[in-house]
Specification:
Elements: H1 12-21, H2 29-49, E1 59-63, E2 69-71, H3 72-85, E3 91-96, E4 103-104, E5 114-122, E6 133-141, H4 153-156, E7 165-171, E8 175-180, E9 185-191, E10 196-201, E11 212-214, H5 225-235, E12 246-247, H6 253-263, E13 266-269, H7 282-295, E14 299-301, E15 321-324, H8 326-336
Helix pairs in contact: 1-2, 2-3
């Protein structure tokens, strides 16, 4: 159909296949990995869309490693991803915000060359009030890809720079998956009527600057002087009308970063007096989000080091995060370095 008026229909499976064709060394394992992962995502999306109807709202009795009460939906998302990914023979280990230690592949299943790190449900405090949630994920290659044994802590503690693929799913007005393998950022939108993610944006580039900022300003009096000065500055009107910046804060990092990816601006979760490393986790949140933002032309730092260059020392490590349009992050850095 040479003259077809229908745009090219690219499902996520087709996209991954086509991307792999560009890499002759690829074995196709990644296609299977992503296929199983998006299956888990479809199950999570179904539960989220039926929230309130499916007796899944509310708390479990469990407290996670961070001392937070685990919501039922957190637990569900965590288990579904683990169970969808534990048997395909492509992973050697997983790590996730909700599990205390490394999540081993059950003995009866083969072990492969990839490592999965994930935040099953981001934005837990928004579950019960119908506000946007997310899932964040990253894949690494294990240090010795020829091994077929359990993955080790060293395989998991790799800097974000070593991610081979990462992204997030946003359960918003529609469900989208934002994904990169280091060759640009692609966005897939979920069509629930056919159960497929379809490519809707290819090679997304973010604006270089915007006058929007996103931070929990309730902590203002716990921040250090330099950061407070920056916040004061961006709120002070300027003759060219570029300031004051507008504030947007959802409280779901995925949603806040997704807005920044599309409209530009900056999202920040700094350290403060009581939490010097802030709240966000390096492996499950900061790294995958930073990989996406860098691939879209943006910048992500902890205030000193690019997030992707931080060498993790423990799996649940936290990090301050300043992420967004390049010029916005550069502007902030002038204050932090002053
Ligand atoms: P999670 O739901 O995975 O625990 O993550 C919540 C995080 C993040 O999504 C959000 O940016 C941040 O918590 C909000 O924290 P504050 O309530 O301190 O602003
Ligand atoms: Mn989170
Ligand atoms: Mn979470």
């Amino acid at each position: 159909m040479e003259n077809s008026t229908t745009p090219k229909l690219i499902t996520i499976d087709r996209h991954i296949n086509e991307e792999q064709d560009l890499h002759p060394e690829a074995t196709g394992e990644f296609t299977f990995l992503l296929h199983d992962f998006t299956f888990a995502i479809r199950l999570i999306e179904r539960e989220i869309r039926r929230a309130g109807l499916n007796d899944i709202l509310g708390l479990t009795e469990n407290i996670n490693i961070h001392g937070e009460t685990v919501k039922k939906l957190d637990q569900f998302a965590f288990e579904v991803i683990y169970r969808a990914m534990d048997h395909n023979g492509n992973l050697c280990v997983m790590a996730c915000e909700e599990a205390n230690g490394l999540m081993k592949i059950p003995e009866k299943y083969p072990k492969g060359k990839y490592v999965l790190v994930f935040d099953p449900l981001d934005g837990s405090s928004n579950i019960d009030v119908n506000i946007t949630l997310g899932t964040i994920f990253g894949f690494y290659k294990r240090l010795d890809p020829t091994l077929r044994t359990d993955g080790t802590i060293e395989d998991v503690l790799q800097p974000g720079r070593k991610l081979v693929a990462a992204g997030y799913v946003l359960y918003g007005s529609s469900t989208v998956m934002v994904y990169t393998t280091g060759h640009g950022v692609n966005v897939f939108t979920y069509d629930p009527t056919v159960g497929e993610f379809l490519l809707t944006k290819k090679g997304l580039k973010m604006p270089e600057w915007n006058n929007q900022y996103s931070v929990n300003e309730g902590y203002y009096h716990k921040w250090d002087e330099k950061f407070r000065k920056y916040i004061d500055f961006i709120k002070t009107p300027s003759p060219d009308k570029k300031r004051p910046y507008s504030l947007r804060y959802v409280g779901t990092a995925v949603a806040d970063v997704h807005r920044v990816l599309n409209y530009g601006g900056i999202f920040m979760y700094p350290g403060d007096k009581s939490h010097p490393q802030g709240k966000l986790r390096l492996l499950y949140e900061a790294n995958p989000l930073s990989f996406v933002i860098e691939q879209a032309g943006g910048r992500a730092t902890d205030g000193q080091t690019d997030i992707l260059d931080i060498v993790p020392s423990s799996i649940h490590q936290k990090t301050p995060l300043f992420i967004g349009s390049k010029r916005n992050v550069d502007e902030l850095m002038e204050f932090l370095n002053s």
